[in-house]
Structure formats: C-alpha cells, structure tokens
Amino acid sequence: MSPSRSILMVGEGNFSFSASVCKLRSEAGSSITATCLQRQEEALRHEGAASNIQTIRDSGGTVLFEVDCTKLGECASLQGRVFDRVVFNFPHCGRKSGVKKNRELLKNFFLSCVQVLAEDGEVHVSLCNGQGGTPADQPKREWHNSWQVAAMAAEAHLILSAVHHFDSENHQNYKCTGYRSQDKGFHVEKALLHVFTRSLPYTSAHIVEVEEIIEGEKVHYNIPAELSDYVFRRFLCSESVHPVKLVQDFLLEGLEENWPVSMTTESVSFLIVAKQLQTGCYGTDITQCYWIHLLHKDFTADTERKDPSCSDIQEALSGLSVTSDKVDRIRSKVDENVWCVSSLDIDLEAESDLHMLRPCLLPQMKKLLIKQKELNNSAELQDESAESNTSAEDKRNKDEACGDCNGVTSLLGTSGVVFRNVSVSLWALPAFHELLLRGVFPSESEPFKLLGHKLESLLAPYGVSVVTKEGGLHLMAQPMGLVGEVFTTSASDNNGHVNISISLNLDLLAVLLFSLPDWRLLWSHDQRFSKQFSVRPPLGTPFRPFCLFPEPFSFDISFWTGPTWEEKRFHAAVREASHGTVEQVKLIDTFSHPDLSQISYCYRLIYHSHTHALSHTQALQFHKQLESLLSTRLQVTIR
Question: How far apart, in whole angstroms, are the C-alpha atoms of residue 35 and residue 49?
C-alpha cells in the first residue's frame, strides 16, 4: 500500500492502536480516521483514551464517535469518502456471545465496509488464534466452532488474499480492550492478521457467434455458452507470458536441443468437418465431441444471439446432407447449437456437412503437412539446377547435418485450444491448449525410446512419468492422470521411416510446473494471476494464491426425467448456470417409477472457486439458477 493512502480504523476501544499507527506513519503522510461505537464520554473512560485521541489529532488524523462498523454507509461523517484500508482489530459482539453472533458481526461488517472501500483497497481483520477457522490457525478449530472469517468475507465479495502474524512488536503501546465488554485485553499471542481484497465479479456465460472459412466456404455458427470464456483468449500469441505459453516455450527449447522444431503461425479454425475426425484424430472419443450445426443464412444477422426455436432447428437441419430418419434422431438430441452424440450413429466419413468443435489438432496438422509437401515440391523444382552445381563436399556436409538430427528433417508443430464434451470432475477439462508435434523418424533410430528419454528428462523433475503403452507412450502425472501422448499416426512414404506425433496438454502441464491448485485459474481474468507471470518466472516457481482457503459448498439436486436422459446436456447446464464454479458432480441415487415411466436422478454438486469470492449465498443462487435452467431447457421436474 502506498504511504499516502487513507486508513479507516473501526471498533476502537482506547484508540491505542490508531495512536500507534499515527506514530509509525507520522512522516509517511497517511490519513488516519479512527472510529469507535461508543459515545465520546464513554470512550474517554478507557485508560489512556484521552492521550491517544490527542496523539491522533496532533498527527492530522480524525476521531469519530458513535460509528457502527456494520452501518458505515449510513455514517454522515463518512459520506463521499473511500479508504484504501479498513482495519478492524479483534472484533467481538461483547459479553459472552457465541460463534454464531460473531460470525454475523463479521458478515455485516464486511458488507458495510465495501461501501467505503476503494476498488483496490484492503480490509484488515485481526483475530485470536483459532477464531478464523482457516488452516493458518494452529491448532485449527473445527469448522462449525470457528468464526469462518473467509466465508463471511465472501458474502461481501471479498477474498482472503494474505494471512500474517499480528505485528504486536511494532505496536508496543497498543492495549486491546473489550474482552467480554470489559476493560480487558484479548490474547494477542499467535494472533493472525487477515487481509481481504475485492473479488472480480462473476460474468454471465453467453453464446458466441463465430465466422470462419471451412473448406473454402464462409460459415457462421455458435460457440456453446459454457465454452464462451475459452475462446479468443490469445494465451499462445508471440508476446504472451501466460503459463501455458511459458510451458510451451520450455518444451520447444528442450526438444530443439535434439531436433529442429518449426512452429506454424497459420491460424486454424475451431470448427472441423466430421469426416476429418475419421481420418485425422488418433484415439478421440466421438462421445466427447461438441457437435455443431451451422446457422442458417436467414438468422445469422441475429445479434441478440437468441436461443433457436424448434422451427429454427428444423430449418438448420434441413440444410444438412442426412436422411430423414437421421434428422429425426439428431433433432431429438439437439441442445441449443450442440448435438449430444452419446448414442448417435453417424458414418463420419460419409457425412460431409456435419461439423464439430475440434477435439484435437490432428486434422489441422494433416492439412499443414499437405501444404508443406506442396511447398517442398515447389522448392525442389526450383533447386534442381542449383543442386547440380553443388560440390560433393557441400552435399556431404548437408547429409551430416541431417544425421545430427537423428534422421529427422524437423518437427512440425502447432498449438491451440481444443474442446472436449466431458462430465464435470476435478481434472476433466472442457477446453485446453494442445501442443502437437509431428516428425518422420527412421525406424532403426527407435524413435519412441528417443522421444521418451527426452520428454522424461524435461518433465520428470515436475512429477511426470513416461509409460510405454501399446502403440506409443503415455505421459502420466498425479493427481490428474494423462498429460500427453506419443504415438504413430500413419506410415511414411519413405521406406524404413515412421510418422510420430507428440500431443501434450499444456494446461495440465502448467498446473504441474507452477503448482497451481486448480486448472480453472489458467482462465482467470484477474490481474493478480497474470502479474505473477509477467516477469517470466522460472519453471517450478510455485504460484502464490491470491484467494486463500476458499470454502467448498455442497448441494444436492434431484429431479424426474423421461425414460431417456442425456447426461452431457446436464453437465453443460451445470457449467453454464454455475459460472464454472462447480468442480465435481456425482450421481448419488436413481429411482425408476414403476407406473409413470419416469426416472429420478439425484446428483451432488461441489461448488468451489479459487478465482472468485464464493459464499454460501452465492453458491445457493447459482444452484437455484441451475434448477430453473434444467426445468426450461431439459424439461425435467425438480423434486
């Protein structure tokens, strides 16, 4: 905090802390406003209060009486003022009040102080050891027996950003009072100072309309609402210092020690044609694809991005090259602009007008390789005459250079966001950045062994192990599981050579290499996240959380459905309604009604956020929004 900022002290007793701060900052130019709940004559009864008040005033500070810290916005003397720091030392309701009353005091204080807090301001709350209920308390009390300070602050959209030991040595003249409404002090030994800052507000998910060129034709389509925050973020652009870019740079530099690497700068579309999946995507689960229908020309100009009606869907489907029977099957599985294909029977190679969001980059890599081959053929024709004039020594040097690269001319690479229609769970990413590399290796060079050793040398220090699997290698790490693969795609035209592809999940690797507590942090808009990487910290530098000890909240949801149930649509609704705060969904019960042909499902949802303030009230609001969304979109009956 800048020395010239303003400080508001609330809940003062004998004003000894405010006087101590004034002495420490007498030459710093800070503006101190000290307040107490009592009337002036009552406050002056405290030992030393008069001299402390005089010290504050002599240093240019202000002293206010009868200020209720739970109603700061109503205080006439504070109208129109904002403070860079609001301090509340050892709050207490007075007398023998229990933890519930003190929690309520904290909650009302936080809700009040944000009305006079600057946008980048801090709230400091000092509590006795154990009261806060965070892991910083040693020993930590049981949750129900603590003041739950972080959860109470979240009610005012504040996050716990730091915890320090209460600095009693620099405030030796401080004498805390008010214990059980008496002129007695609290136990400040091992007391903790909790620092709170504002959380970014939640932003609603929205459908994003995209225009792209697919196979020479301009198409319009909608990105599903639950994926809206994962597109156009430019984390991998050349000037980026985002963690996924730092991890990519690290991997490319390491691989270039053994093989030349050429990364394409050509932008590739989010959308691919279904037949490309059949010919280009190794090991991709078709049930995890986001199937997209193109917007009809008649409603591409709808800037409001309204949800398509049944007639809109029929009109869109009528433009697809599918049979009437297949249209009926698809229509029953349309959710807004996404087709759920868990049970959809589609011949991918035969369907040229079915589209999906790219689940991997292999189809685009195939196109890049075709372009590269065309360029190479053109270059060879131009170089034929020059080659005939090349000396034997130059040819020998060129051959030796290729030999130094283990027979690989170069590794061609591309990277970008890919999308997977997966269920909500701790390590299931609906979108992540894939780094894909392709090279042609001589079979006798044992390419899997070479690449396995290299990747292990780069990533083993961060907990990644290389496991040999049939047809390739798996890169594994705990607790997330698979973080990359090395595999054969197709045989090369050259005898004795093999095409090898390397696919790496940059998001999960960034979680490992920077010790992030949650992959969702990578998509945070908070500058407190991005600032930590602006100086390009070395790999292995632990991330410093700006949202400490966020509390998880568990809610159950139960509803009746018809005999068919598309769970993927339910998980999409969960992501959208919860603003991405649900980290885990678990089916805990099902029941089939014997007479009504209905099935009841009961799910348990865990709400938890490392990026935003998430209070019980906010989580409950998201849960109510989910119930409403399920009722209208999936036509379920909430129990």
Answer: 12
Residue listed under structure tokens 């600095």: 167
Structure tokens given for 336:
């807004």
Phi and psi of 584, rounded to 5°?
-155, 140
Measured distance between the N- and C-terminal CA atoms of the chain, rounded to whole angstroms: 51
pLDDT digit string, tens, across residues 248-271: 999 999 999 999 999 987 778 999
Q: What's the rounded mean pLDDT across residues 468-480?
A: 92
Alpha carbon 82 to its chain centroid, in Å, reads 31
Helix, strand or coil, per DSSP, at residue 464: coil
Tokens of 44: 């002056």
Task: Give pLDDT, residue 162.
Answer: 97
Q: What is the pLDDT of residues 37-90, one digit of tens each?
A: 999 999 998 888 999 999 999 989 999 999 999 999 999 999 999 999 999 999
Asked, as a colleague might, if the bond just before 538 is cis with ω within 30 of 0, I would say no
In 135-270, at which residue ranges do the beta strands (DSSP E only) sit?
158-165, 192-198, 208-214, 217-223, 261-263
CA distance 334 to 313: 8
Residues 297-339: tens digit of each pLDDT:
433 434 333 343 333 333 333 333 333 344 334 333 434 455 4
Query: The tokens of 253 are what?
Result: 């530099």
CA 219 distance to own-chain centroid: 30
What is the C-alpha separation between 484 and 509, in angstroms, rounded?
9
For residue 220, CA distances in Å to 141, 210, 306, 330 come to 56, 6, 15, 20
* Ordered alpha helix ranges (H), 167-288: 243-255, 274-280
Q: For the chain, give me the number of helices (H) and strands (E)?
A: 16, 25
Residue 180: both structure tokens together? 């059980």
SS3 of residue 43 by DSSP: helix
DSSP label at 79? Answer: T
